Amino acid sequence: MPRRTADEVRGNEEGDANSAKRARTEDNRPTAADEEQPNNGSAAAGRPFSEFNLSSGIVQALEKQGIVSLFPVQALTFEAIMRGEDVLVQARTGSGKTLAFGIPIIEKLNSLKEGPTRGRGPAAVIFCPTRELAIQVRDVIAGISGGLSVTALYGGVAYNVQERALYSGVDVVVATPGRAKDFLEKGTLRFDRVKMVCLDEADHMLDIGFKEDIELLLQRVAEQNGSVPNEPKHQTLLFSATVPDWVHTCSFISKNKKFIDMVGQGAMRAANTIKFYRRKCSFGEVSGMLADLVKAYSGRHGRTLVFTNTKKNLPMVDLVIQCAPPTDIDAFIHRAGRTGRAGRKGVCVMLHQPKDEYIVERIERHAKIKFEVLPAPTREEILKAVARDAAEDLARVERSATNLFLEQAAELLKDADPTEILASAIAVMSGYTSNITKRGLITGAQGSSTIQMVGQRPLPIHAFCSILRNNLGDHLFTRCRDITLLQDMPGCVFDVPEELVPQILAAPIHGMELSVIETLPPIIARELHSGGRGGGGGGGGHQHRYRGGGGGGGYRGNNYHTNRRRY
């Protein structure tokens, strides 16, 4: 496994910074350019507006936001939606789905030429699974709506503000099922004008937890707009990053629907501009690891979204960190899709405990992605990253502010070296006024160092373990963590507590060269299905790695038995 440096992971940040600023509105809400330009191509990948029957108002609104063409999912769905067909669209998160339904919805509603009467119900309803997505969709569609009224209904806020919007009259409602159901029961929300219904993230909307509410809402739409069985008076649009087989059989979408698959069988379901990394991390190390990852791979001027059990939307994200692997594969894909949007590169890092390796393998298999194992950020990488951020901050200080501190600066420089004073100032700005604790490059454990042991010929992992135990003794060997084979050299690497490093380096191990390393060389990634778990006190063996632990067993399949001293 090649070592990825923080600069390689973080490489897209500086190049994308200016475009990110241009794409963001003054109130920091996402624009269509934030959310809708696809993540797998530049403007050249799109089709020019002139190929489609788009109104000048839509074209001007899109161009104002830096969008100059329709991208694949928008181009392939536009004509079918404009013809009034029901459509089921599978497309990756970030590929432009919102504008794919938003543009034709606005075009069709404008063609109705209905006046803005007070108290009118919506002509189009878009259902979203979360308030964050509802707000995001509302903002994107409002950016191209012209004179049409677009409002969002979602929980977590008072009813009265949203009620006032409904009383005034609306053309497009973007709603979460729960809040829409509340307003429907109160009689505040009516569906008698509805001509178009769209489900965004349709797989989630039709799954357990939403399905009953969605079925009720769609039933009310049919009842109130005068539909009859098998002859609905509204058009149904389903958009999703994943489309399980059962979605095709939904009763409320036409059997003659047009299915547009932008992903394909066997293709990677997440955006192809996202680099996926995983970092093994024990529960107690998560908070410290999060801080180091953000500093090293995103920095103070990047934008990071950390997923736990709750989430909040953030546009223009550079780095997504998932603190634990979700058991729902679709949830992983949707979370990862918050980065790698609008043609920008993105990074998704997933932290996981050793016991969750099987979930990692399952995500790779079903999402058609491949994680790279991400070593813990080194002390040098963290220092380089925070120093770079501090230098950027210094460059942004206005002259008028600098003048306020000239007297104190001159006083400091009287009896001190200017370079040392500036270095101290950068340390304070970066939040590091004392030494930074080292982390093991393999385990990420704080207060650990990584030792490399290289011999003269290749040996299996259990042989290296035998050599270490025989020469270090049980008291030191059991403190060696994640002994792992090197890929390009006849040796292994392992993490140990810093205080034990002198003892281990001083051990006379014949034919072996031991050294502390600061950068992890290529290692042989563990095969998740090989070997066996340790017994007793927690050791564990696999084909290429021994996890270590207090006296436990390992390598039953490879004849390494800690408890029986057989190698």
From TrEMBL:
Pfam families: DD_DDX21-DDX50, DEAD, GUCT, Helicase_C. Residues 1-13 have a biased composition (Basic and acidic residues). Residues 1-47, 528-567 are annotated as: Disordered. Gene3D superfamilies: P-loop containing nucleotide triphosphate hydrolases. Residues 47-75 form the DEAD-box RNA helicase Q domain. The keyword Hydrolase applies. This is RNA helicase. It comes from Trypanosoma vivax (strain Y486).
